[in-house]
Amino acid sequence: MGKRGLVLCSVTNVLVFLIGCGLICAGLVVWLSVFPDMFVKELKKNKVLGTNDDGSLNDFTRSWMDSSGLRQNFYFFNYTNVFGIVDRGAKPDVHEKGPYAYKKMTVYEEYTFENGSDELAYRYRTSYYFDAENSCATCRPDDVFLIPDPVFQILMDLTSSYDKICDLLGIVVGELLGGAPASGTEFCTQTLPLLDQEGKIAKFLHQVPSFIGVGIDVFDRYGPFVAVKVEDFLFKGYQDPLFDQFLAKLAEFINSLDLQVPILGALHLPVLTAPSIHLFYNNSVSDTYSILTGLNNYLDIGKVVSFTDNNGTATNGSSLPEQWYPRLLDALG
Fold first, then answer.
1. Cβ pair 189, 163 in contact under 8 A
2. Where are the domains of the chain?
3. Which of 113, 192, 200, 222 has the fewest CB atoms inside 10 Å of its own CB, making it the most exposed?
């Protein structure tokens, strides 16, 4: 090949290089300017919660409400040396088992578009079903585990000092009387003396922290641990032996004092039935939420405008209702 051929090849290579650079630049321009605009237009057009012209839900809304394929996995730790932990302070020896897979089904039972379809108000029902196929080979919902008793932890926290007990009783009495919860100091220094002129209750309250700690072995042979089935702990609920015994002993002690309440006469407490303990609700109905559909601004889609719980308590504008905050947590800090 002569010099002329080499020159032509060089020119061709340069032209190919320049054309390639031009195509890359053109692609970048399209990617950085044209494509984002097309993407945003697509979002504004199709990614909006709403209906089709015939009144049916559009594809985006149907996919948002579709809960098929949702699954929740749970892992449990079985404490195998509870007596060593309680008696000798041994390091916990645990055995992990799982996953216990549950299908999560969400059905939107009520939904309405409001304010010119700018808002969607809805409530849904959530149900869980044991999924044996995606669980471990030996996992069954009726498997029993020894786990730390959550009721014991709560009771120890709420009754760890005389002041906390006073705070708790002030809240309970306030709720029973339909008024605002009394402060712990106010209850124990003003209200309690009216009910307990001989000081028997006050003396008992000072003993409660040690009463809980020392009496735990009497309440249940596993101490601060509880044997519970997987499905009971998660959804169905179980009766905590410590809770039952605590309420029974408390009622027995109060009744033995033979207290005389002004106007009401003798104070007699029935043995209360302890509520069942579980982590989640199955087949439960949610609160009613109102969210933005993204019709006016696609960036606002899903923002919560308001909610009303199942007791009828609603938000006040952009502020949460006062009843939404647990009084117990506010009082105990």
1. no
2. 59-145+282-332, 150-219+239-266
3. 200
